[in-house]
Amino acid sequence: MRCMTSSDTPGTAANAPAERTAVAARDWSSAAADPQYRAAVVDLLGALAYGELAAFERLAEDAKLAPTLADKAELAKMASAEFHHFERLSNRLAEIGEEPTEAMAPFVTAYESFHKQTAPSDWLEGLVKAYVGDSIASDFYREVAARLDTDTRELVLAVLDDTGHAEFAVEKVRAAIDADPRVGGRLALWARRLMGEALSQSQRVVADRDALSTMLVGGVADGFDLAEVGRMFSRITEAHTKRMAALKLAA
Amino acid sequence: MRCMTSSDTPGTAANAPAERTAVAARDWSSAAADPQYRAAVVDLLGALAYGELAAFERLAEDAKLAPTLADKAELAKMASAEFHHFERLSNRLAEIGEEPTEAMAPFVTAYESFHKQTAPSDWLEGLVKAYVGDSIASDFYREVAARLDTDTRELVLAVLDDTGHAEFAVEKVRAAIDADPRVGGRLALWARRLMGEALSQSQRVVADRDALSTMLVGGVADGFDLAEVGRMFSRITEAHTKRMAALKLAA
């Protein structure tokens, strides 16, 4: 399925390690000459854009559950930051001649299923969900970013900039567990359910989106083979486990 | 209840018309020397700030009902704009040494009652509600702004800047009525209910908040007497009626 030929990248040797750095060293206009790479990036930006819009909605929804006005304002602030990330991604899609809503459309069902399966029943569940979801998404996109062309990478890393949510969630959840340790058991179960549902929806997306999964599995980007994808999922799961432990939630 | 004495405003004659321009010609630090004026402005900024936060929540909520991804993104954009207005008001309260959440607290019940009594049952009712609510609030604050000190006035007018919602709502509602004229009858009833509920909650706020109502009724600001308040409410209702007629909704 490799569609990048060495003739597209003059000066790059045809062996695998050199190819692995090829896209990551090129800018968008050069890398996008390969239609499969271009399609994969459009998918990636569409998925990320809809994810930000969904995060906006989820945080705004959680703001309604906030126990104090200050917490409400804090969540509204994060929601607004997510919206600005969405805006940048959406503008970028338009810039490269893609209709943002069309690029996002293939990912709506997966996000909506995830959110329906994991509707938080209270403020703390909402915080844990936002924290777990943001962290996993951020880990995933950072892994992928390293393999993207320089322009796309810069944008992806910029919109992953922490909106301050992690610190806020950790602080509130820790305080709640300190006040009532039984809360920890309930939230640990909840976090496991979130991780399971997130993995199941990701698999669905990967199965549905050829260009995206081809890029992930040793395809048009940089020699990201199936074993590497497996290792990536391990790293993400491991990081999740560590975060939960730091939150005093056994994952 | 007039607490501003002519000795506080050297150079101002003691007659009513001159007093009427007094606060409006002063800046905050001069006007705020009068503790009742100061308390009234803190109330006003608190009410406006909570209104923006509530508008953020309402628009984010409506975004979930949006029939298309483009509509959803448009509403998220407006919600985010309302959040930035909230942020400016909240920063201003902090700047003048007030705790924003304390300043907002007295107005939470009125807004929440209003929103509970007027939960939209669909996308179009949500649009009409946001349009009617924003327009009435904007008319009211513009009337009051003319009577405020120069610094507070500038801020109030800045956060009333149209977030593009009005045009969007009008366009969508008109199209829906053109497509099915029966929709117009239903939305006209809805708009009447919104106006009634808004008036009833405003009366509650005015009854509860001494400093604010004293400013409105010929008090610490600029000779805004009871007859003038009556005329203000007439102007606001009249503007509402005109807007509804323009929307082909008989108010």
TrEMBL record, chains A, B:
Residues 35-219 form the Ferritin-like domain. Coiled coil: none annotated. It comes from Streptomyces griseoviridis. This is Ferritin-like domain-containing protein. InterPro entries: Ferritin-like, Ferritin-like_SF, Ferritin_actino. Pfam families: MiaE_2 (PF13794). SUPFAM superfamilies: Ferritin-like.
